[in-house]
Task: structure prediction
Amino acid sequence: MKSISLLGFTYLSVLLSSLISVDASEVIYGIKYANGDNHLEKNLAPIQTKALLPDAQDLLGGFNEWLPYIVPSPDQENAGSCLFMSHTAVTEVLINRERATKGLENQNLSERYLMNLSKAGIGSELVTNWKTDTIFRLNKTKETYKNEDFPYLKGWYKAGADGLRVFADPKEEGSYYGVKANWVISLDQLNPNDAIKTPHFSRNVLFEDPSGNRWNVATAPENIVDKVKAALDTKKGPVLVIYNHTGFWHAVMIAGYNDKVDTKGCPFVSDFPSSISERAKQLRAESINTTSEKEKKRLLGKARLFQKRADRVEASYNQAGGCSGKGAFYVRDSIYPVDTMPQYDYDPTISGEEKHLNAPVILREYEWLRHLANHVIQIYVNP
Result:
């Protein structure tokens, strides 16, 4: 039997049932891949990382204004789509809250649509810095689509003559199957009658790394946690964060916070220095086995960067007093599927490719933002 699709699912009930059924905060695991085909991240194997899944007690108190409007996403796998997953999450929350005032259910919007806009360059004249301005692409089209009309999928694709991916036949030479098919520009498949009108979005940059480096660590101001909490308290909109996810850059949405949450020793940040140091060690070992001096130099240079970031986080973390033990953000991520969630059907034409949806919310300790974030923006509707 095929797994159930997202069509018609009541997301608020998904959120509540999946979290309340958890007896206590527990560790869950997800796989993070490199973002796209960026040469700065090549030769790096995907990594397994962990997050805290909240229980019902973790939802009490704090700021949870946006939680009822969150839509869990499919596992992004190796699409390199986290920036668009998180921006779509923000769009869903802002639109769904407005729908709730009219007694309407949450809508599950298309991540693939924003990916296609970016790949096609639509709205690029509005984007000065893609790390902070991606939401403006929706101000260009003034519309989006539901996932059921333009789904996040798995399919066959290959490199086209211009270097852009195109859909392919499974038997074609150079064809591949997977989630990177979402990058194929296929906006002509959309029915304009299915379009959902979007409001005009604005954003406030709470922190931008001075160098613009999306891998940077330990550069956020000491008060960044308080700045984000204050921004959320305005109820204008959720916050999008780009940070160093154990060597890869990653983007997520912060939907709220709770000062009382037990962070279980800050597992993400406390593990970061040793994990990054190990990756630096792996790169040095790989450099020994290469016969290319150019490649050897590249690998050793990357190893030095990894070790530098490990040392910086360790120093910053220790200087701040280590793990405070309390206080976490409610985060919507795209790489932590859990078996308490329904399965998502990436490809209705076959069976076996399904996977559980991501947890609607994970917990990230305040220290995560303080020591690992490099770009932090609040996105809201401009009245």
Remarks:
- The mean pLDDT is 92.
- The domain at 11-266+323-381 is CATH 3.90.70.10 (Cathepsin B; Chain A).
